[in-house]
Amino acid sequence: MTTKARSTKRTKKTVYEPVIKLPALSYEQFVALRDNISVNGVVVPILVDSDGPKRKIIDGNYRKQIAEELGYDCPEIVHPNLQEEEMRTLARALNLSRRHLTQEQKREMIADQIEETPERSNRWIAKQLGVHHATVGAVRGELQSVGQVAPLDRRTGNDGKLYPTTKPMAVVTRTEAERRSRIDATTLIQGDSPTQLKKIASASIDAIICDPPYPEVNRAYGRMTEKDWHEMMHKIITESRRVLKPKGSAVFILQPNYETIGKMRLWLFEFVIWAAKEWNLVQDVWWWAVDALPLAGTNRKYGLMRQSVKMCVWLGSPDCYRNQDAVLWTPSQATSARHRADVALRVGPSGRTFRNSTMSKAADERGGTTPYNCIPIPSGGRVEGSEHHPAATPYDVASWWCKYILPSGGVLLDCFAGSGTMLAAGLDNGASKVMGIEREKKYLEIARRRIQGT
User: SS3 for 219?
Assistant: First the structure.
């Protein structure tokens, strides 16, 4: 008697996974949905991307889970031929309109969409998600202020073309001789900053002033991790000390950012501690953007203060060059009026006595008042002529530092030249030569046009 072997073919179980991770349903919502399905079954079909062995759930993940738990059939509607980004956008839109989300959960979903499609206009995102464009704008503002996304300088229209979000601003017009003189005094270097710095002669630079990229921020040219950022900056500090003259110093303009709202990233403070020990922190200096919008980087629900300062990490020898006379504050008319009229003796909260007139006289005698280490300069919105560079330094900030630490006829270096604001400010404030290193060729071309004028 022969035994015939029988082959059995096992049917593979279809695998489902959600397109996006959604905020969890509250216990009450989950129980209500489960009770409804247990009585009526799955009335609204779930939405999936295909009918294959692996299916992505665009809408209805909880309905699918409950149906499987109860052993019920779960009807499906297939929405094929969608790209990954399109599926996620559709999933957010359906859930924003259907689920009972809190305001915070809704804003989190809008934030996810902005981070995924930062180049899209607020109105486009609002239309896709079924929310108001002002809400999208408010969420984008919060993300920009904490460095999660770059400012929107161009938008993608419904026709797929790019349009500037603001009108182009005029560039300074100069004579041919002036243009030639400025461009002859300028050296623009394309490449990676740590690598290109090695090619610059030792003790050849009078001042380094730059606004480096920040870690964990999405830019058109990529996102840098904190680890990679520290490695890059450690190399730059080492080379900066080598190329600077003995009395030269360096300033790196940096803004702390959040990991999540209410939880700061520590990379800036770690860098400052390291640099101070490795080199020397001349003084703690902050640039205060006095025109920061009332809700910049925060919201009433967060209860935090608005983001308005960037640290100017000033490194060099304790006796490095600085020209305080160039940045003294001229006494205002209000102070001068007080000098003439208010001569009464005053007593401060500590019991110390003083006269406003005496303070004003001291300012008059020395030609101005010593600036604070918190420099109040408005950011002024987009920088003139920067042509949509995503992180251009305000000219007034660049000019202030050039006046302070760049000797007349000195050589200025910007390790992250971008659209050339720092270099233009250096030439405007008496530099004999300016040098800029920039990885992106398109920004160097903008810098060249801005420096020489058109």
Answer: strand
Structure-token pair, residue 284: 């703690």
Beta strands in 19-148, from DSSP E residues, in sequence order: 46-48, 54-59, 76-78
Angle between helices 421-428 and 395-405 (to 10 degrees): 50
Burial of 300 (0-12, 13-18, 19+ CB in 10 A): exposed
**How is 280-342 classified by DSSP, letter by letter?**
-EEEEEEEE-TT--TTTT--TTTTPPPP-EEEEEEEE-TT----GGGGPBPPPHHHHHHHHH-
What radius of gyration, in Å, describes the C-alpha atoms of the chain? 29
Report yes or no on whether pTM surpasses 0.85.
Answer: no
* Contact assessment for residue 156 and residue 124, using Cβ atoms and an 8 Å cutoff: yes
Report strand pairing: 281-288 vs 374-376. parallel
Q: Is 90 helix (H, G, I), strand (E, B) or coil?
A: helix
CA distance 387 to 380: 15
Predicted confidence (pLDDT) at residue 145 exceeds the cutoff of 80 = no
pLDDT, tens digit, 9 for 90 and up, residues 273-284: 999 999 999 999
| DSSP labels, 399-426 | HHHHHHHS-TT-EEEETT-TTSHHHHHH
Q: How far is the C-alpha of 444 from the C-alpha of 17, rounded, in Å?
A: 45
User: Is the separation of the CB atoms in 452 and 239 below 8 Å?
Assistant: no
Higher-pLDDT residue of 130, 357: 130
Do 434 and 200 touch, CB atoms closer than 8 A?
Answer: no
